[in-house]
Design brief:
Elements (H helix, E strand, L loop, with lengths): L1 H15 L12 E7 L4 E3 L2 E2 L1 E4 L4 E6 L7 E7 L2 E7 L6 E4 L11 H18 L19 E4 L4 E4 L2 E2 L5 E5 L5 E3 L4 E9 L3 E9 L2 E11 L6 E2 L4 E5 L9 E8 L2 E3 L7
Parallel strand pairs: 8-10
Antiparallel strand pairs: 1-5, 2-3, 2-6, 4-5, 6-7, 9-12, 10-11, 12-19, 13-18, 14-15, 14-17, 15-16, 16-18, 16-19, 19-20
Length: about 260
């Protein structure tokens, strides 16, 4: 009986305290045991800290533009060093029929810059939250049509790397929250179309773009699994799909790092 109880408790604790894998390269995560320290900072920005069974764990997102090398994270108990390794991502060529979505005319630039500022305000936020479920579920059924990090060429012109993953599915396919959070922003943007941004706490933000319908309201608190919208083809798209992005400490990371 005692043996079975131990196995049950072991499974329970491994589920509750499950963490992503350490992936110290651009687009990945660095996990550092920081002992009893309750906060950590990297480049003067706050870093997510989650409680483990006997210590605390700092989880740092590594941006695609971060170069390889040796770095340090600051904690209450001093500095900790870590290494970032290089990683190469493949190239993807896409053809966009609406040429204004490749090279926007001047009349649209004010709108584009305004929308970028609005979204950046969300990405920079750091809301205090201790209980964060970082074991995400895939937000929608479909086929992964484009992976994170792809170096993109639109109509032959180089653009920024792909900052999320694309899930291709039929129009109207439901999109669900992969974890609990607060609806930090909704909008209908030039590039992203109908969009929802969820704030899960401690700088962890998820983004859902090109929706045909939005089912939540701004500042609404939602639980994991709640329907937040439906797949569409609004904004700059080549077909119906969901662009799912994940931002941590204001850098875009691979959403796969958070999937079970």
């Amino acid at each position: 009986m005692r043996k079975y109880l131990f196995l049950i408790l072991n499974l329970l604790f491994s589920s509750v305290f499950a963490m992503p894998e350490n992936s110290p390269f651009p687009g990945g995560l660095v996990l550092l045991d920081i002992g009893s320290s309750e906060w950590a900072k990297f480049a003067n920005k706050e870093v997510m800290v989650l409680k483990k069974i006997s210590s605390n764990l700092a989880i740092l997102g590594i941006g695609l533009q971060q170069g390889p090398g040796e770095y340090q994270i600051e904690t209450q108990e001093g500095s900790l060093s870590f290494s970032i390794k290089p990683k190469a991502y493949p190239i993807q060529h896409l053809t966009i029929k609406n040429k204004n979505h490749v090279n926007p005319p001047k009349r649209d630039l004010d709108r584009i810059f305004r929308e970028k500022r609005e979204m950046n305000e969300v990405f920079k936020s750091f809301r205090s939250e201790k209980n964060i479920d970082i074991n995400f579920s895939l937000p929608s059924e479909g086929i992964i049509s484009s992976e994170f990090g792809l170096r993109r060429y639109l109509n032959g012109q180089a653009r920024s790397p792909h900052s999320g993953i694309d899930i291709a599915a039929s129009l109207g396919t439901s999109v669900h929250a992969p974890s609990a959070g607060i609806v930090a922003k909704i909008g209908d943007f030039f590039f992203n179309g109908k969009t929802v941004l969820l704030d899960h706490g401690q700088g962890l933000i998820t983004m859902y773009c090109h929706l045909s319908k939005i089912n939540v309201n701004e500042y609404e608190k939602i639980e994991k699994g709640v329907k937040i919208g439906e797949i569409g083809m609004t904004g700059r798209v080549t077909g119906a799909h969901l662009h799912w992005g994940v931002s941590l400490n204001n850098v875009r990371v691979n959403p796969r790092e958070f999937l079970n």
